[in-house]
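Review form for a predicted model. The reviewer records the input and the model, then writes brief findings.
Reviewer: anonymous (R2)
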Amino acid sequence: MSFVYSTCCGSLEYYDKNMDRVNTRAEKKLLRVNRIFHKVTTTDDPIIRQLAKTESNVFATDAIVATLMACTRSVYSWDIVVQRVGNKLFFDKRDDSEFDLLTVSETSSDPPPEDSTSLNSPRNLALEATFINHNFSQQVLRQGEEKYSFEKPNPFVQEEEEGQVASVAYRYRKWDLGNNIELIVRCEHDAVMVSANSDLQFVNIKALNEWDSRYSGGVDWRQKLDVQRGAVLANELKNNSSKLSKWTIQALLAGSDQIKFGYVSRVNPVDSSKHVVLGTQMFKPIEFATQISLSMDNGWGILRCIIDLCMKLKEGKYLIMKDPNKPVIRIYDIPDNTFDSDEDADDDDSDDNDGDDDE
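Model under review:
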């Protein structure tokens, strides 16, 4: 596996270093930042469509690749659509799926209850975590000031679009995986910052959120964050191993220099609408990967195995699904028009292929 090149587009705001002063004694209210986030799947990306005409034969987004690479840490079910067109593979998320929602306490020994009416059900926590991440990632920037812009503009901004687009840059990176497999991944940066020695650094910004310490490991952030941050992070690694692994893989794929974590907590454990920022922490992605025992070599191996398996299938559309009850990935052969219309496909598809990736 060798990296070949990258092309970039979009514009980024600068990280506000005043946020590094936030702590439990000087917490900061999480603000609602109304900005547009584009979560465009692979085959709807105009740049990937253009690249697919002339080069490479496997295409995906960083979120999809990270999910596959970190699949051994997944507990909840997820699915990805694969289309084989000629000798090319396109990995997509399903329209209207919850693929982009962030899981909470997925790998906890005492996971959230599956009660849909509960404030702390897995889906409600995922909606809350995604809301927090969107707002935190924009609040920590120097809004309204000069931006760092790449030569090409954001490819997803429409002229008639109303509202301000979130700070984001897309980096289309190409890897040669050997044996005539070339992969292009659309990666993302969230911001830029100037380091102590005046170097420009690209940053990915993510938020960890505390919902109720009584049910998520018993580590109270307001008591521990300033004096025992390591204990807080260790608890998050235990409860959110899958999410943290995917974030780290995405930062590594993008070539980000830093990954910035925010610690965001509910003002009141019984109210999921009001939050405060209690602190921030920054890591180099490669160092953080080592800290959480994340092997990119293993991740590339898993991805290559899935690509090789899909390349052996006949042309058509397939669904890769993480089994909801077992550490197994299954690949289903589905009709070509599946997910293209509002009609649900027949679940009892007799023609399926099973592959697995054991933990």
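Findings: The CA atoms of residues 317 and 336 lie 5 Å apart.
Further findings: DSSP finds eight helices and 17 strands in the chain.
Recommendation: see findings above.
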